[in-house]
Amino acid sequence: MVTPGGARPKLSRELIVTKARAIADASGLDALTLRELAHALGTGQASLYRHIADRRELLGLLVDDVALEFPTADPGLAPRERLLKVWLDLHAFLSAHEWVAKVIAEGEYISRNAAPFAQRQLDSLTGAGLGTEDAMRAYRTLYNLLLGFLLNKHPMGHHLEAVPPSTEDEEFRWAVSRFLDCLLPGEPPQGQ
Amino acid sequence: MVTPGGARPKLSRELIVTKARAIADASGLDALTLRELAHALGTGQASLYRHIADRRELLGLLVDDVALEFPTADPGLAPRERLLKVWLDLHAFLSAHEWVAKVIAEGEYISRNAAPFAQRQLDSLTGAGLGTEDAMRAYRTLYNLLLGFLLNKHPMGHHLEAVPPSTEDEEFRWAVSRFLDCLLPGEPPQGQ
DNA sequence: ACCTGAACACCGTTCAAGT
DNA sequence: ACCTGAACACCGTTCAAGT
């Protein structure tokens, strides 16, 4: 419950992260300045530094917060469909928060909260018949493929495109499908 | 020939781009400020604006300049090997200029000079048996895959890696190889 | 002891004054 | 007419002064 006119809730890391996410989602990464953030929280810029080390750390906290909402796979699906769905879900989710990919690209963050997601995908991949090393490589490939699609809004040479306009979403689905087709042993695609 | 003590060569777009690339290559994108650039050119900041519209345009010019050096394929190779080699070459080239991927990721640039490269890759892909639409999708996939590998230095969940340390180079080779294997019709990999 | 307004050292960009 | 030092409006970060 927000106290309307009286005392503000005490400033905290959580409060900062929540407000910062709201600003980034609404207005983009560039609009997320420490001045704007402090103002939106009704405090001074210097006060933020009692809870975060610097902007870099704040961005890391934001990514970590978003990572909590990464999709989980439907265990009822077959391996290939389960993998496909989860990566399409993640693509859709991160497309709705485009600042996340930018933060990952510009910094060197290690998101603790993304580890369970990674582990689940590795399990899916080994469960589909891959060795541990191939599973790791496949995971990194899928992740880097996703990052590339999220960041590259104007693929170079785009002005060559005479082809029917397919959405980024369709293109990502095509790419992941093709990759899974060749990656997973046995189990041919059999039209769908 | 640089005139040592006397008159400087007249400022030009070319001179600005050359010096800017040198700074970015040597010290990274953050070090490429208009102040530093002007200083390195022995002129004032305001003078730069007589040749470029703003920093954004400068970065676009830089990418365009780099694109002139994108690799060309060896026509003597078979389609699959030709494609593999050219994308590994491009990966190696852009790894040596890491600021390029960052510029592409943060801006929305359309590099005119990258168009011939794109066209050659499309030709290789159709030459390998793909339809025009699939060739376009394959090109975008390869390009986005490359961008993801260049930008993502710490793939999320990296602290899971118990697997033998493979270099980014090897991982990219693995990813492209696998993708080409499933993409190109006929012509099985047949061990190598 | 805890908080924070005001300052500091940057940045990209503009403008008015110099030649 | 062309060039550019100095200023402007920002930014992240720090510090000294307030409670």
TrEMBL record, chains A, B:
DNA-binding stretch(es), residue numbering of this chain: 33-52
Protein name as catalogued: TetR/AcrR family transcriptional regulator
Entry-linked Pfam families: TetR_C_1, TetR_N
Transmembrane portions of the chain: none
Lineage: Bacteria, Bacillati, Actinomycetota, Actinomycetes, Pseudonocardiales
Keyword DNA-binding: yes
Keyword Transit peptide: no
PANTHER family (UniProt xref): HTH-TYPE TRANSCRIPTIONAL REGULATOR RUTR, TRANSCRIPTIONAL REGULATORY PROTEIN
Superkingdom assignment: Bacteria
Residue ranges of every copy of the HTH tetR-type domain listed in the record: 10-70
Keywords assigned: DNA-binding, Transcription, Transcription regulation
